[in-house]
Design a protein that fits this description.
Layout: E1 2-3, E2 15-16, H1 21-33, E3 39-45, H2 50-62, E4 67-74, H3 79-89, E5 95-98, H4 106-114, E6 123-125, E7 143-145, H5 149-163, H6 170-187, H7 195-198, E8 204-206, E9 209-213, E10 219-229, E11 232-241
Parallel strand pairs: 1-2, 3-4, 3-5, 5-6
Antiparallel strand pairs: 7-10, 8-9, 9-10, 10-11
Helix pairs in contact: 1-2, 3-4
Length: about 240
């Protein structure tokens, strides 16, 4: 089963299709680590998903010899305190990764800005979940790994021309999954829908970029890397991945 559900981690035989916040955070952290940053801090909403985000970011950093110095769970009400605690726990981090979950990152970003983050010495890394809201001035200077709108755009344009309304990103995901299924059926036949084929480490390429499925049902994606400048996403690298 190929599942397009939001925030679904996947399971045996049920593959999560959508880009997860964990993958976006990992890819963004990996891109910054590839430039030489070594010491990272992760701020993540307290809750069930915190461990998954932490594990993916730590694994991505290890590829580049970087480390996750500390993970700090937070809520909107204690963001300022958590950022203050960060200063006493970690000396001179190179980058701070901020996951936002279902909420807005603005409270924690405001507290970070008061400490000069982002700045010349410390990079700020966001996630695709930030972009579910209008870009706030506090996003300025942050790096974000997310899907390439120039690739998903043509699918959206054809959808709008046919159905006369603007689609969301699920249309691109659905298009890719139909194309993947048709491609497997055409090239391998009915027996192609096996773990060996679907969990091919080389992955697949679609309008949502390069992706692959893991044995636990989660997906991993390669995607462009952007920087927020003047309220817009400016392309920094065409492709980065946290795997």
């Amino acid at each position: 089963m190929l599942a397009l559900a939001d925030n679904f981690a996947g399971g045996p035989g049920v593959y999560a299709v959508r880009l997860s916040e964990a993958d976006s955070a990992a890819a963004g952290a990996a891109a910054v680590a590839s430039k030489g940053a070594k010491k990272f801090v992760l701020l993540v909403p307290a809750g069930a998903n915190a461990g998954a985000v932490e594990a993916r970011v730590a694994n991505a950093l290890s590829i580049y010899g970087a480390t996750l110095a500390v993970t700090l769970p937070y809520s909107a009400s204690d963001a300022a305190k958590v950022v203050s605690d960060m200063g006493s726990l970690v000396e001179a981090p190179d980058a701070v990764v901020v996951a936002s979950g279902d909420g807005s990152p603005v409270a924690v970003l405001s507290a970070l800005k008061a400490k000069g983050i982002p700045g010349k010495a410390v990079s700020l890394i966001g996630t695709e979940r930030w972009l579910e809201r209008p870009i706030d001035p506090l996003y300025e200077g942050a790096y974000i790994a997310t899907l390439d709108q120039s690739e998903t755009g043509p699918i959206a344009d054809r959808f709008k021309a046919t159905y006369n309304y603007q689609p969301d990103v699920n249309v691109a995901y659905a298009y890719d999954m139909v194309a993947l299924s048709a491609g497997i059926a055409s090239s391998v036949g009915p027996n192609g829908f096996s773990k060996q084929v679907l969990e091919n480490a080389s992955g697949f390429r679609g309008s949502t970029g390069l992706f692959r499925f893991r044995a636990d049902g989660s997906s991993q994606r390669s995607m462009p890397f952007f920087k927020v400048e003047k309220g817009r996403l400016k392309l920094v690298e065409k492709q980065t991945a946290g795997f």
